[in-house]
Specification:
Layout: E1 19-29, E2 42-47, H1 53-61, E3 79-87, E4 93-100, H2 111-127, E5 131-139, H3 147-158, E6 163-168, H4 175-189, E7 196-198, H5 213-220
Parallel strand pairs: 2-4, 2-5, 5-6, 6-7
Antiparallel strand pairs: 1-3, 3-4
Length: 226
């Protein structure tokens, strides 16, 4: 798959660090139509079941209980919407929404539930006007994209959605193994290794600072030209 032409690059929103200064859960929506009004830029967060979406979001905002962490893979079946305010250099601020998409790829989820995931996820990615980008999470211990990951990236590309690839649970691997996984994933989507973000909810790796996830979100949600 060719790299997204709109993936975040170094620029004004990444010159110095950004951090989340306020976060709140807004709602769980059973459909795209039930989501809040699209008056804020939105970032979709996707990945396989138990990839660590909730843990990463909690670590990013510094609130352990903001997003519920389920020990049952495939349990999240709604669009969970969170609003974040980020503070950056020179007093700059961004308010955006992170939309946690249903996890996918877990065999134990009921078939009818799994079949319901695809229309919801695809409908959101295709139809949501406020959506700025897709952030796809991949477990460092898997080390590669699944077929479903690939399909989601291709679907996002077909609908001109910028994508950001984020490796979770990087603390579970040594430095050499992390580098190998990063290069492998970068090669699989045709980007430079530096454009694949290494993160850990446990240690805070890759969340703050000029090259962290908070800065990437700020860059993706820069105000559009008038």
């Amino acid at each position: 798959m060719p790299p997204s032409p709109d993936a975040p690059e170094a620029g004004s929103s990444r010159d110095r660090g950004w951090r989340v200064v306020q976060a709140q859960f807004l709602q769980s929506a059973p459909s795209v139509e039930a989501c809040p009004p699209g008056d804020r830029p939105e970032i979709a967060i996707a990945g396989r079941s138990n990839v660590g979406k909730s843990s990463l979001l909690n670590a990013l905002v510094g609130q352990r209980g903001l997003a519920r962490v389920s020990r049952t893979p495939g349990r999240t079946q709604l669009l969970n919407v969170f609003e974040l305010t980020l503070a950056g250099p020179g007093g700059a601020r961004r308010t955006l929404r992170c939309v946690d998409l249903p996890g996918y790829g877990f065999a134990a989820a009921r078939r009818e539930v799994r079949q319901g995931f695809a229309p919801m996820i695809e409908g959101y990615l295709a139809e949501r006007e406020a959506l700025r980008a897709l952030v796809l999470l991949v477990d460092a211990r898997r080390g590669e994209l699944s077929d479903l990951d690939q399909q989601l990236l291709e679907f996002a590309s077909d609908h001109q959605r910028p994508t950001l690839l984020v490796i979770t649970k990087a603390d579970k691997l040594g430095a050499a193994a992390r580098g190998l996984v990063r290069r492998r994933l970068a090669d699989s989507v045709g980007v430079a290794p530096r454009d694949v973000l290494l993160t850990s909810a446990s240690t805070g790796l890759g969340l703050q600072g000029p090259d962290g996830l908070a800065a990437d979100l700020a860059a993706l949600c820069e105000p559009e030209p008038a």
